[in-house]
C-alpha cells in the first residue's frame, strides 16, 4: 500500500498528466519499442500509427492517477483492459519493461518538474497498479484454461468455411485442429487472431467479435476488408484474411474474451444498433435473445453504406419472419443504389429512432466511432439512463462524451 505522502505526490501530478498525458504515452511507446522491438509482435501497429493506443493509455494513466487512493473505483476499467491483455498474451514479465519505459518517458517529457520525489512516488504507484493488473489477469488466464473446452495462450484452428457476406465482409468458420471441445462464450465477446502475413517482420494480432450465438461446434468471425483510404493504409490482417487465408488453412486463436456482453439476467426490451461491421457482436446477441426462454422484445437496427455493403441481410430477415412476435428489424442505408429499398435513407437520428422503438429498453450498439457518438448523443438526449446504454469500440477504448 502507498503511504499518505506518496499518494499526495501522485495526485499533485494529475494536472500535468491532463496536459501532457498523450505526449508522455507517445514517448513511452517510442522508447519501449526501440528498447524491446520484440513487443511489436503483440501490439497493434495500426493503432500505434494512428495514435489510438497512446491516447487510450493516457486516459488509463490519468484515471489511475486520479484514483490512486481508491483503485477499486476503476476496477471495471482495469478488467476491460485486462481482458484484452489476456487475449493478447501479456504476461507478468512484461510489466517491469512497461514500468521502466513509462517512468523514463515521464521524466523526459516533464523534465525538471519531475523531481526525485515525484519519480520515486511514481515508481511506487506503478508497482501497485501493475500488481493489480497482474493479479486480475492471472485469474483470467486460469479461468480461460480451466473452462470446459478452454485453453491458455493460442490454439490452432482450421478454417472450415469461408463465406462472403457482402462486398466488404467475409465470415470465417473456425474449428480446433485438435478436434477437441471449444469454450463457450458470452454474446458480444471476441477471439484474437494471430497471423504473420508474408513480408511482415512481426506477427500481428487482432480482436474479432464472435458473430454467432454460443453453442455451436465452431467459432465464427466476420471480418471487414480494410482497404487503403487516403493516408490510412490497408489493414494488414483483414487484407491477409480476405486474400490469403483459404478453407483448410490454420489460424492461431486465443480463448474468447471481452466485457461487452449481453446482460441475460434482465427481462426488459432490447434495442440492438449496428453500423457496418459493428453488426458482428449484435448478431451474436440477437441470435441468443431469440433462442432464450424469456422472450424479450427485440428491435434490431442496422446501418450500412448501401445494400452491397449490408452483410447478413437475408439472415436477419429470416429471423424476423421466424420470430415476428418478438423481433422487429430495420435497415438504414446512407446512400442506397438505384432500386435498393431500406427503411430510412441517410443516418439513424433521434426523431426516426423514436418512431420505431421507445426509451424503456436496454440499448446495445457497436460500429465506427462517428456512428457510436451519434447514437450515444441521441440516447442521452432522449433521457436513456447510463446503465441502459452499452457499447463497444473497435480497438482501444475512447470516449463518446461531449459530442454533438
Automatic annotation (TrEMBL):
Annotated ranges, domain Globin: 1-138
Reactions it catalyzes: 2 nitric oxide + NADH + 2 O2 = 2 nitrate + NAD(+) + H(+); 2 nitric oxide + NADPH + 2 O2 = 2 nitrate + NADP(+) + H(+)
Co-factor(s): FAD; heme b
Domain of life, per lineage: Bacteria
Comment, domains: Consists of two distinct domains; an N-terminal heme-containing oxygen-binding domain and a C-terminal reductase domain with binding sites for FAD and NAD(P)H.
Family: In the C-terminal section; belongs to the flavoprotein pyridine nucleotide cytochrome reductase family.
Designated name of the protein: Flavohemoprotein
Species lineage: Bacteria, Bacillati, Bacillota, Bacilli, Bacillales
Gene name as annotated: hmp
Amino acid at each position: 500500500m502507498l503511504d499518505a505522502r506518496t499518494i499526495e505526490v501522485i495526485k499533485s501530478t494529475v494536472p500535468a498528466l491532463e496536459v501532457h498525458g498523450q505526449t508522455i504515452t507517445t514517448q513511452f511507446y517510442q522508447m519501449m519499442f526501440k528498447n524491446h522491438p520484440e513487443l511489436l509482435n503483440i501490439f497493434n501497429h495500426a493503432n500505434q500509427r494512428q495514435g489510438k493506443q497512446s491516447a487510450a493509455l493516457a486516459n488509463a494513466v490519468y484515471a489511475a492517477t486520479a484514483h490512486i487512493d481508491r483503485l477499486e473505483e476503476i476496477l471495471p476499467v482495469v478488467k476491460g483492459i485486462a481482458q484484452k491483455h489476456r487475449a493478447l498474451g501479456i504476461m507478468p514479465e512484461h510489466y517491469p519493461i512497461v514500468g521502466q519505459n513509462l517512468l523514463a518517458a515521464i521524466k523526459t517529457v516533464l523534465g525538471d518538474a519531475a523531481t526525485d520525489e515525484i519519480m520515486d512516488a511514481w515508481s511506487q504507484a506503478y508497482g501497485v497498479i501493475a500488481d493489480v493488473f497482474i493479479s486480475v489477469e492471472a485469474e483470467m488466464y486460469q479461468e480461460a484454461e480451466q473452462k470446459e473446452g478452454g485453453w491458455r495462450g493460442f490454439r490452432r484452428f482450421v478454417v472450415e468455411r469461408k463465406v462472403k457476406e457482402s462486398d466488404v465482409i467475409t465470415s470465417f468458420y473456425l474449428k480446433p485442429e485438435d478436434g477437441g471441445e471449444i469454450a463457450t462464450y458470452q454474446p458480444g465477446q471476441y477471439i484474437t487472431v494471430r497471423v504473420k502475413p508474408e513480408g511482415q517482420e512481426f506477427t500481428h494480432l487482432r480482436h474479432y467479435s464472435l458473430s454467432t450465438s454460443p453453442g455451436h461446434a465452431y467459432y465464427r468471425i466476420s471480418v471487414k476488408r480494410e482497404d487503403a483510404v487516403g493516408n490510412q493504409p490497408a489493414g494488414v490482417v483483414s487484407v491477409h484474411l480476405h486474400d490469403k487465408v483459404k478453407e483448410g488453412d490454420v489460424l492461431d486463436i486465443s480463448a474468447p474474451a471481452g466485457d461487452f456482453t449481453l446482460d441475460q439476467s434482465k427481462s426488459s426490451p432490447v434495442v440492438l444498433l449496428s453500423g457496418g461491421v459493428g453488426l458482428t457482436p449484435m448478431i451474436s446477441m440477437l441470435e441468443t435473445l431469440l433462442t432464450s426462454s424469456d422472450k424479450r422484445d427485440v428491435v434490431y437496427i442496422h446501418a450500412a453504406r448501401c445494400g452491397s455493403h449490408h452483410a447478413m441481410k437475408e439472415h436477419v430477415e429470416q429471423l424476423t419472419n421466424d420470430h415476428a412476435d418478438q423481433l422487429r428489424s430495420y435497415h438504414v442505408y446512407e446512400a442506397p443504389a438505384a432500386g435498393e429499398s431500406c427503411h430510412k435513407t441517410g443516418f439513424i437520428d433521434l426523431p426516426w429512432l423514436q418512431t420505431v422503438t421507445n426509451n424503456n429498453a436496454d440499448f446495445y450498439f457497436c460500429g465506427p466511432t462517428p456512428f457510436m457518438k451519434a447514437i450515444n448523443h441521441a440516447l442521452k438526449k432522449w433521457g436513456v439512463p447510463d446503465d441502459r446504454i452499452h457499447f463497444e469500440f473497435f480497438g482501444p477504448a475512447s470516449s463518446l462524451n461531449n459530442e454533438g
